[in-house]
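Researcher: First entry.
Model:
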Amino acid sequence: MSARKQLLLKKHRRAKRITLLVALLALLLAGVIVAWWLVPLLLVLGWVAHEAWFADHLFYRGSDDYQYVFPEDVETQVVSIVAGQVRLSAGLAEGETLVLAVRVRHSWLGRWLDPFVEVGDDRQDFERGVAGVRYLNLSGQRERLASGELTLRGRRCRLTAQAVLHVMRSPDYSRQRTLILAPHADDAELAAFGFYSRCAEVAIVTLTQGEIEAEAYQRMGLTKAAAARLKGRLRSWDSLAVPLWGGVRPSHCVQLGYYCLQLPAMAAQPELAFGSRESGESDIRSVRQHNPLMLPADQDGAPTWHNLVADLTALLEHYRPEVVITPHPELDPHGDHVATTQAIFQAIARSSSKPATALLYANHLHDNDRWPMGPAGMGIALPPAIEPLPADRLWSPLLSDAQQLDKAMALGMQHDLQGPLPFKRRLRRWIQRWFAGRRWPASGENEFFRKAVRRHELFWVRRIGS
């Protein structure tokens, strides 16, 4: 977790403690002045209200504008929203990725139920209490937009009569040789299953075993270290086997075997070896036996930053990608994700193979743990960017219903996304279903089945070297 994410979470928890303390004092006062039985009743009602409406981790205000800047060559025009239909002010420029910046304001009901915008046959949700500039993803709606048939209708919210349309043109990157960097097993599927399942030449490299937080395996009678080793083996297997569901051959899947949550420490001290926090292991060769080629770190098995960069350099020269897909270093706060992108950029600087383009993804956010908001199967609006990001182009390819189903099944094969929800989280979902109108897909209980299985995938396009 990044320092900024930790600071936001610390402020959130402090504000919540102060609010709870004030509420407790008010309850005690009500019990003394009115009747004692009000205290337990109001405690239960207050807890239900918290779980229904105040349990989300949103570390910004609904009135904050999202701060996006796009490259200067991106075509823009002002459009009007008249009787729920989008009217262009000029001809529609060439480009398949369409983003509409529009001011959204909640209705009174939008403070208690999730506000959303119907975009033709799509739906894109926003924060309760939204009252700022948001970015709708109109990708896939080009024909309707050009013909004046695209409808936008706010539900539990209102849209301003004018908006700004950004049109971004990119090649179909799935036709180019691609190397996908996954910090952990399942990151490639979450971010890019639709992409890689139609990519003719793609390789997937997973950096870590993902062995920590293995309490579920301790229930089988294993020690903490043995449970972590088993989880590391299982997730390493997932990283090699699951991509075959999307058509990626085993000869194009590599597991590097470094240890979960240790990549930032490795980057800070490149010559030191950082073994697992929980499994007791310090030799990364324990999960490399199925790799299709020998790599530099196979000589000593040491989990060092120097070995990681050397491994990635060798993989670049072996697969010679034109595109690399890697976590967004400014948007995704997970320490292993930030370090993954740092490592691949260092490897590119050393390698004789120079990819031209990086496609960046975000499986986690600083500011909002629910993004993409709304139900599975819908579109992906742009995530909160409360602080300005680099001026990257966007590329948002579409997934058919069949591809979305295959993506959900691929996630279901990942051991870390299996298993029942804890009782507290299951109870919270039941409360939110009945009081806040939220729904979760039948494909899996983990939150990523809702967040990742969508009609869009979303990438930030960055020219390497720029």
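Researcher: Second entry.
Model:
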Amino acid sequence: MPTLDYRALLSVAVDEARIGLAEGGIPIGAALFGPDGELLGAGHNRRVQDGDPSMHAETAAFRASGRLRGYRRTTMVTTLSPCWYCSGLVRQFGIGRVVVGEATTFHGGHDWLADHGVEIVLLDDQDCVGMMTDFIRTHPDLWYEDIGE
């Protein structure tokens, strides 16, 4: 797969995370991109807003992208390491690359994805870390609900 401007792609997911936060939700954003970097779909965690425990950011971005014949050459960009649920989505549909904004506040399933052939790009973006750290400090109840603790 071609190398893309990962920071530019991450900015789409960060914008989505900020929208989610402004709506009173959990600030996690994601976007799915095609092989040449074209945006296929974007979304943010809507668990709180929709009362739907399955509406994670990666799920929202995937649903917004519509049907594709195959996903091997797509790139999922997410502000936070994907949980097991979202990691399963990546594996189920064969998404070839995941760009992770940060895995400091939550170390999800990205190592498992790498072990199963998914290319992982970990950016360790300090804006993503700061956004989640602030959210966890001010909304620990929502955070621990989101990660299932």
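Model: Note on the second entry: The chain is about 45% helix and 15% strand.
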